[in-house]
Structure formats: C-alpha cells, structure tokens
Amino acid sequence: MEIEKYQIDAHNEKLDATHKQRFSFAASENARVEEVISKLIKFQIAIPSWALGTGGTRFGRFSGGGEPRSLEEKIEDIGLLHKLNQSSGAISLHIPWDIPTDYDAIKSLAAHHNLRFDAMNSNTFQDQADQKLSYKFGSLQHVDKAVRQQAIDHNIEVIRQGVALGSDALTVWLADGSCFPGQLNFRKAFQNTLESLEEIYAALPDAWKVFVEYKAFEPNFYSTTVGDWGQSLLYASKLGPKAYTLVDLGHHLPNANIEQIVSLLLMEGKLGGFHFNDSKYGDDDLTAGSMKPYQLFLIFNELVDGMDAKGIDHATGLGWMIDASHNVKDPLEDLLQSVDAIMISYTQALLVDRAALTVAQQENDVVRCQEILQDAFRTDVRAIVQEARLRSGGAAQPVQLYRELKVRENLIANRGLKTVATGL
Ligand code: LRH
Ligand code: MN
Ligand code: MN
C-alpha cells in the first residue's frame, strides 16, 4: 500500500483553518520561528527495522497482524511513516534479522521511498540456526578465541553488507557480561572485547564510524562488559577517531542523569548516536516521551547547546534513531508518536533563551535558570512542528490520517492477520 499525495492534501485541507490559527499564534510568540522550522525540516530520525512488528516480552508476543514479512515490506512500512511525517527518512537494519539479498533492488526500493540506510546493527547476542559456536557465554569477550573470531567475522560481514547498501556506520551492542560473581575476569573480558573491536575497527571503510552501545544490565544480571558510558568511552577512545559512544536512553541505571552524560560525551567529541525510547523501570523500550518528557527535553537542551558550541550540524552530526518496540500498540502508530515526541522536544530545546541562561548561570540565579528552561518546556510547540511537517509535504495529523486511511486494515488485507516480523 502507498499513501497518495491527494489523500494527504485532502486531510490537510480539512484541518487547515484550525492549524493556521494555532500557528499564527505560535509564530507571533516567537521571533525565531522560521529558523526553527528550517532546522525541523532537515531533522530526520531513523526507524529500526525491528520496531515494525509487535515487540514481545519474555512472557509472550501478541502479533497485531499485517506485520512486514520481509525486508522489502519493512522498507514499505517506513515509507508509509515517512510519507505521513516527512521526518523518518532512514532505516536501520539488524543483521541477520534482516537478510538483504538483492542489494540493488533493496537500494532502489529505499530510494523510491526517500529513505537512506542508517547505522547497521550486528547481532552476536543470539545463536543462529546455522551457527558453529555458541554465544551463551559471550561473543567478543569470550574466553575462546574461536568464538571471538566468529563474532568478529560476523561484524565484518555486516560492514560489507552496509557498504553494499550505502550505510556508513556500524552499531555494536553486546549482551556480553556475566550473571554471577566470579564467573568472569573483568579485565580479561575487557581486553578480549577491546582486541575483538580493534579487528572490527580495522575493517571499517574510511568514511565509516563504529558506535559502541552500552547497557547496564540485561540479559546479564551481574556485570555487562560494555556496561556504562565510561566503559564505552574507554573502548571508543582506545579504538580511535572513528569510534564513538552510542546512548540508548533505556540502558542506564535508575535516575541516571542522562543529559549530563550527553553533555560530556559531546564535549569530548565522542557522542556518536542515539537510541530514543522511554522507560519507567529498565530497558522498557516504550514510546519516546511517553514517561519522562521533561527528561527528553533536557537531553535535547544539552544536545543543542553542545552541538552549537562545537559547530556540529544538528541533522547530520549524530546518528538519530528510535529503539522502541513493545507489546500493546500498533507499531506504526507507536513510531509516529515517538517521532512526534522527539520533534517536540527538539523544538522546545531550540526555543531556550541560551544567552539569558548563560547570564543567569553566571549570576547563580538558580530560580531564573529554572524559569528559562521551563518556559521553553511549557511552550506548546505542536503547531510549529506541524507547520514544518506541512511544508515538507507531510500530513497535518499523521496518526489521525493513518487511521482515516485504514492503513493497518489494508496491511492485514495484503499480508494476512498472522504475520510475525523478525525482531525482538
Ligand atoms: C539492546 C538494544 C540494542 C539492540 C536492540 C535490539 O537492548 O537496545 O540496541 O540492537 O536493543
Ligand atoms: Mn538500543
Ligand atoms: Mn535496549
């Protein structure tokens, strides 16, 4: 199924009068609105191929029907999202959950939907059916060099596939760690992982980056070999200039100050990419902004501040991606909500009066500092985000139009009710 321009136009027409009224009020309140809109239009958030099916928990999975059965159908689904919001112009693949075969055909399908290939994700946290050695006790950290080599080779193969598709980054997330005290020699595990990553790093093409994603716990519950931003930064620093830390919002211990982590990684030039999601307890992978919208805003506040300080382009300087997927929502509606929440937080962060904040900080005027941040956070920026979307050719209200066009019903009619997308 494809969404046609005339369908978007008809929907936009219906909502035009209300939007114009809201937008003119928002524009009258903010002198920098045009500058903000031009940034929003450029800002694209990659969709992970594994979020297009209903996510499972370790207790079960309830398929919603019409899920993509192949990489081609995943690209088509992201094409639908991008048509609606014009902010989801990239796909991130997970190998071997995705199996690209005909690279040229895949590339032209993606181009047809105006999508580019974001970071490639390797997978050494599961055993595949045809795999010789098991990752039960880790992959890049494993005590047996043969297992490490198998995992290294897999990562190099993922780079090769990414090159064929036109990607330019590899994300390595390792489940490696231990479940019980004494199981692992921490230093040996670190050294093995570093040596393995060095071999992968050596295989990176010139313009490529590698993102080292950290996670505090799960599936290992005593130690994780890339457990926090300090450890990720150690690997990235030892590896060299093409290696960066990747921050997944759900991968921290409770109450971690993620915005401070982001700020310092940016200062060090080592923040490479983001996995957006939200959580209440652990790596819940809930819709971005659904639990802690203020935290999301504070993170964007640091991102905008830190990127501007270094002259980094907001749209292209970091890898922006969603990593959310769960059990109860239609995954496409969920992704539209995540993208919208990210755009809202980004807009609010762009509205912060930075010059005034710097003065208030310098004067230790704590009350004023809070007022400045919360003034931006409490601004209703939805009409500004909508205006940016409309100017790019997107829908006024993406979720509403998705429902009006009965997209899910159409996908079920085409693909069937009992479909299971590869992924979590
Ligand atoms: C691990 C993780 C990582 C994986 C994805 C499926 O929790 O965040 O990014 O690749 O989930
Ligand atoms: Mn992640
Ligand atoms: Mn995760």
Automatic annotation (TrEMBL):
Coiled coil ranges: none
Transmembrane segments: none
GO molecular function, one term: metal ion binding
Annotated keywords: Isomerase, Manganese, Metal-binding
InterPro entries (UniProt xref): L-rhamnose_isomerase, Xyl_isomerase-like_sf, Xyl_isomerase-like_TIM-brl
Keyword Metal-binding: yes
Residues annotated as signal peptide: none
Domain Xylose isomerase-like TIM barrel: 100-285
Protein name as it appears in the record: L-rhamnose isomerase / sugar isomerase
Species the sequence originates in: Pedobacter westerhofensis
